[in-house]
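ok here's Carbohydrate sulfotransferase, seq below lol
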Amino acid sequence: TCSACISLAVIRGRSGLKPVHPLSEGLWLNTTPLVTERLKNTSAGNSTHTGWEEGLQQLVLKQELRHQVLANICSKYQLGSWDQVVSKTHMSMIHVEDKSRLLYCEVPKVGCSNWKRVLMVLAGRATSVLNIPHVTAHFKNKLRKLEEYGPKGINQRLNTYTKVLFVRDPFERLVSAYRDKFENKNDYYHSLFGRPIISRYRANPSQEALRTGDGVTFREFVHYLLDPQRPVGNDIHWAKMSTLCPPCVIQYDFIGKFENMNSEANFLLRSIGAPQNLSYPDYKDRNPEDERTHSSIMKKYFSQLNATESCLHDVNICVSPCLLIRQFFLTTVTFAALLKCS
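and the structure came out like this:
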């Protein structure tokens, strides 16, 4: 049947292995750029498969285009190469699901909570994605990271498992992180980040604001991001996606878009042979009363910035003489280019 012959083989290229630099204890990585194979032997057994096959064709073509754009951007901006060593930092963001032979690179604020729920079900650690609390999904999921394996296990998984990355408009993601961590009650972020941000970037802050860290404005948050001598370190919720999951270093077989999460995540699940009753859960468990951040909301926040600050949200300006902005956001070009692919 059609469903039996559909797999990620239509997305990932088949090629030989080639060693990377002899660091990281001699890890090996497939260094031939990924290519999308044409559909092979996917004729429908009956008309009920026609819609699925048409959707499959479209998604395969999108994957092909994204990989082509990615290769061009990586080359143009020299953002890394496929013969580079995969570092411990990179591997710490990659979740391993051995039963489905899946490697998922986690990018916070790009649907990672729900992806962890999906991985827990695939691994047999939960029976449904709908009854996994947020704390369990993040801190009690018992999912393994790629960094936990030895060199042989890392090499084998990097070269034979389906490697998955979902991206999001980098500026939507930035606004989403700000809203989640600073507009809502969050003692940890308000204390660790809010207090030093207010102290450094607000004129005449109140003692209450300095004590609690509550009420960080979006402008203050942006100033913190652009400050080369910021008063407190970075955080993965607004760290650059290309730092967390470098697409110019690791060849991801499947690159999905947050904006199309339902269709693309479920296509991926069907392709790897996930149970038919398992679907990506489209719900927001943190601050569910808040509207999910989208382009209109993003524009509303960036409209609060002045001319110098607001050049931040124009990707074209990221490679212009806005030096601080270029320094911090240059590698968002990679993802922004991918997001322009339909």
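fwiw The two ends are 29 Å apart (CA to CA). kinda neat tbh
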